Amino acid sequence: MPRQQRINAAEAEALLLKNGFQLARSKGSHRIYMRGTTRIVVPFHGAKILHPKIVKQVFQAIEAVP
């Protein structure tokens, strides 16, 4: 089974914005992005690497057809 990519919040944000997501709002250290009815929450905690489940959600949201 291939390993999931390791990315930080800034890289995830760049991927989401490049693929049509818009920043809907932010609360504390979490930013919420929307594209149509698809919502993804990305925690911003410095340059920390995101948890693999968050990375998986980001890639699934990008691949989803709006």
Short description, anyone?
With 66 residues, this protein is α+β, with helices and mostly antiparallel strands.
What does this structure look like?
The chain is of the alpha+beta class and 66 residues long. β2 and β3 form a beta hairpin. The longest helix has 12 residues. The chain is globular, with a radius of gyration of 11 Å. It starts with 8 loop residues before the first helix and ends with a helix. The model has no long low-confidence stretch (mean pLDDT 92).
- Stretches with pLDDT under 50, minimum 5 residues: none
Structural class: alpha+beta
Strand content: 25-35%
Secondary structure: helix percent: 25-40%
Shape: globular
Q: For the largest beta sheet, what order do the strands appear in spatially?
A: 1-2-3
Average residue pLDDT = 92
What is the subunit arrangement here? single chain
Q: How many strand units? A: 3
Number of helices: 2
Annotation keywords:
single chain; 66 residues; alpha+beta; three-stranded antiparallel β-sheet; 2 helices; 33% helix; globular
